[in-house]
Amino acid sequence: MRPPVRSVVRSGIFLLMLASILVGCSRDPNVRKQKYLESGTRFFEKGKYHEAAIQFSNAIQVDPDFAQAHYQLAQTYLKLQQYPPAYRELNVTVEKQPDNYQARIDLANLLIGGGEFKQAQEQLDVLAVKQPNNALYHMALANYHAGLRDNAAALREMERAIALDPNRADLYVNLALLQIGGQQFDAAGANFKKAVALDPKSMSAQLALGSFYQSRGQLAEAEQQYRHAIEVDPKSVDPRNALARLLVVEGKQTEAEEFLKQTKRDLPDDPAAYTMLGDYYFSLLGDVNRATAEYEALYKEHPGVLQVRKNFIQLLILQNRLPEATKINDELLKTNPQNIEAMIFRAQIKIREGHPSEAVTALQEVLPRDPDNPIAHYHLGVAFDQLGNATRAENEWREAIRQKPDMIEAQRSLASAALHRGDWNALSEAAGAISAAQPNLPDGYALQAIAEVNLKRRDQAEANIQKAIEVAPKNPIGYTQLGAIRLLENRYPDAEKAYQKALELSPDSSDGLNGLMRVYLAQNNPDKAIAVANLQIQKVPNSSAFYDLLGTALFDSKKDRPGAEAALRKAIELDKTNVDAVLKLAQVLNVEGSTDQSFALLQQGVKDHPNDVPLYLMYGELLESRRDWDNAKAAYQKILEIDSNNPIASNNLAFVMLQQGGNVDVALAMAQTARRGMPDSANAADTLGWAYYKKGAYGSAIGLLKEAVQKEPNDASFHYHLGLAYQGAGNNAQAKEQLQRVLKINPNFPDAEEVRKTLSGLSG
Q1: DSSP assignment of 642-705, as one string?
Q2: How many Cα atoms occupy the beta-carbon half-sphere of 65 within 13 Å?
């Protein structure tokens, strides 16, 4: 039976009122911000920190004065180790909620960690008045004293903290860490154990004890502790990560891999767990191929998991699978055009495609939105480096490190830049930071060894090489550095043995093959060097670097130009980005007399690699030899756009301008710049002398041109310039002597007819 009409109407009115109330609630900013906060908290508790950060940020967008959301966002950034934004959010929290003393403690600890002791003291002073009996305040004060290297005061404060709250496990962990700094290892071990006893479920205490055992070389005890921690909390990924890393240190790579596969089966719904295997392949083994294959499978299984998608994109970029990376990243940007990571991926792709200017533009869109993003600063540095702007590149890498001190990629880039320019102190500093951040990897120690060798600190170099081998006995890098130092000492059998070991461990090691070939060449045995190159090519037939090394040896040591040409062409065929092979092939073709082929090769080279300075230099010099002054000038100007401080380009451009009859004052200034950058260069002396000749300053010209002739006595053009300078100064006898020398050195000198006319005039 139908209800009376009146009842239906009343029910409808009630539903409309309810809907109105619900809509009102959803629009109420207090309700919305609270929902975002609760959602973020749930994500945080599950360890999904990226998702938590989004929700806390949403809450702040609704209410910028929502102190609790600012604080929770700060905690999330701390978990993500994003310290600059964490600092910013803690500052906002304290400003909006001055009595949030835990935020002040967190802020003090963060400032202490960054070495900002004066600012930390301001927070500690407030806490001293407002929270004198807070154990966590005394722990922060202990960390402050430890940062100032007053370990005794630090230990006293930790004793006060424990006296105030003797049942807090984290206080004993902090005390133990301070005791390690004071070399009190037995006491530290006892306090780590005390922390575990007080709170058996505290994962930080469990892991701290395991890490302590590992640092003391008690690897069996460390392994047992990590396995116990997994039993305590089977769903936590942190002890599983720690155990996997320990197994690698122990040389149990197969066991580590199987353990991570089991972790993937144990926790199939936890992205942090099932991505560990792929991260292991990438981070611990450095095996990009296996990491990419693993993430490709994960992407098919979990296409909607953001972190899987992002990690897969990054690996595709590293593999130069750029169309695939672009497709997935574009889908991500379509869903969220302001996604910072996706915007950075887009810039990385542009860098890989050889479009650094577009990458700079993309990253300069990112940084106003997220100025404290170290990854954006790092890749902006890479883009500037590709553009040849070394100064801006290094500034961006330093900014990335300032924001994230343990950002190894930026430290590696700074190390590479220091190595390139021969700044051994800067290399030592960067290498030290790498080894401090990754003490179980060999790279930092190997780079440190290079710096120490060049700083004439042979003993320290030796110690770092041995450390590199100790921490990674199956990595070739330690052995290649050992070979280098033995070669420097002329201990050829030992150097040979070290390089052979490197190639045994990694048959595709170009450093290993290069070093072994140099050992044989140093002993005047080019045949053996070429034989070992051919042998290694048989083992690794698709190595562009190996063919490059073979071609170099054939050309330099055997003068086998056809053989060198064939090898270098193969190197370029295998890797079109091998600029070194392009340059060497151009040299070979020039010597063979195939200058048109060399010119065509370089012309294509500068198109393919528009920011490569060595290619442009060789191209410009070949244009000079053809007396194509306009295009040579354009080539050198292009170099100076890329690297405004390049002294060779300045020198060559000055010379071209003088040959063209350009502005002598401008050319003179450029020649002076080149001379300052290359004070020992005969070319720089000649160009500056030629500029003074054009200015009519014959005395200044003669001094410089004599220097050039003394350094390069068989360069006909230097004698020609000196002869004309003597003529200008009225010293005809010496002018005649120099000009006759020109024709003796090179009867086909390009200006030979002009030389003969001048000689005829001098004789008359």
Answers
A1: H-TT-HHHHHHHHHHHHHHT--HHHHHHHHHHHHHH-TT-HHHHHHHHHHHHHHT-HHHHHHHH
A2: 4
In single-letter form, the type of residue at position 207 comes to L
Return the closest-CA partner of residue 683 out of 631, 656, 718, 635: 718
Cα distance between residue 62 and residue 152, in whole Å: 48
Whole-Å CA distances, 256 to 87, 109, 263, 352, 605: 36, 35, 10, 33, 45
Q: How many helices (H) and strands (E) does the chain have?
A: 45, 0
Residues 6+ apart with CB under 8 A from 496: 483, 516, 519, 520
- State what percent of residues in the chain have pLDDT above 70: 96
pLDDT reported for residue 394 = 92
∠ CA 418-422-424, nearest 5°, is 70
CA distance 440 to 420: 25
The region, left, alpha or beta by phi > 0 then psi within -120 to 50, assigned to residue 217 is left
Cβ atoms of residues 379 and 359 within 8 Å: yes
What separation, in Å, do the N-terminal and C-terminal C-alpha atoms of the chain show?
A: 137
Provide the residue type at 93 as one letter. Answer: T
CA separation for the pair 302, 705 (Å, rounded): 71
- Mapped to the 3 state alphabet, what secondary structure does 581-611 carry? HHHHHHHHHHHHCCHHHHHHHHHHHHHHCCC
pLDDT in tens, 262-281: 999 999 988 889 999 999 88
Residue 149 tokens, joined: 């290297």
CA–CA distance, 647 with 244 (Å, rounded to integer): 51
Cβ(554)–Cβ(530) below 8 Å: yes
DSSP label at residue 66: -
Question: Per-residue pLDDT for 440 more than 80?
Answer: no
Give the gyration radius of the chain's Cα atoms: 34
Contact 567, 554 (CB under 8 A): yes
Return the half-sphere exposure (C-beta side, CA atoms, 13 A cut-off) of residue 558.
18
Mean pLDDT score across all residues of the chain: 89
The total number of residues written for the chain in this structure: 764
- 671 in Cβ contact with 648 (< 8 Å): no
pLDDT of 234-259, one tens digit each? 999 999 999 998 998 888 889 999 99
* pLDDT score at 391: 85
pLDDT-derived band at 385 (thresholds 50, 70, 90) equals confident
Kindly tell me if the per-residue pLDDT of 17 is higher than 80.
Answer: no
Count of other CB atoms within 10 angstroms of residue 307: 16
Q: Which of 569, 571, 564, 565 is nearest to 544 (CA)?
A: 571
Q: How sure is the predictor about 532, in pLDDT bands with cuts at 50, 70 and 90?
A: very high
The 3-state DSSP class for residue 300 equals: helix
Scan for tokens 């199987």, then name that residue.
Answer: 258
10 Å CB burial of residue 125 (0-12, 13-18, 19+) is exposed
Q: Identify the burial level of 18 via C-beta atoms within 10 angstroms of its C-beta, where 0-12 means exposed, 13-18 middle and 19 or more buried.
A: exposed
Q: How far is CA 319 from CA 242, 376, 740, in A?
A: 28, 20, 60
- On the 0-12 / 13-18 / 19+ scale of CB atoms within 10 A, 662 is middle
pLDDT at 610: 80
Instruction: Over range 323-338, report the average pLDDT.
Output: 91
- Alpha-carbon span 483 to 522, nearest angstrom: 13
The C-alpha atoms of residue 436 and residue 65 are separated, in whole angstroms, by 40
**pLDDT-derived band of residue 764, with 50, 70 and 90 as boundaries?**
low
Q: Look at residue 27 in the predicted model and tell me its pLDDT.
A: 65
Q: What is the pLDDT of residue 26?
A: 52
Rounded Cα gap, residues 96 and 73, in angstroms: 14
Asked whether 701 and 693 are in contact (CB, 8 A), the reply is yes
At residue 12, does pLDDT exceed 80?
no
Phi-psi region of 223 (alpha: psi -120 to 50; beta: other; left: phi over 0): alpha
Torsion, Cα 39 44 47 53, to 10 degrees, reads: 90
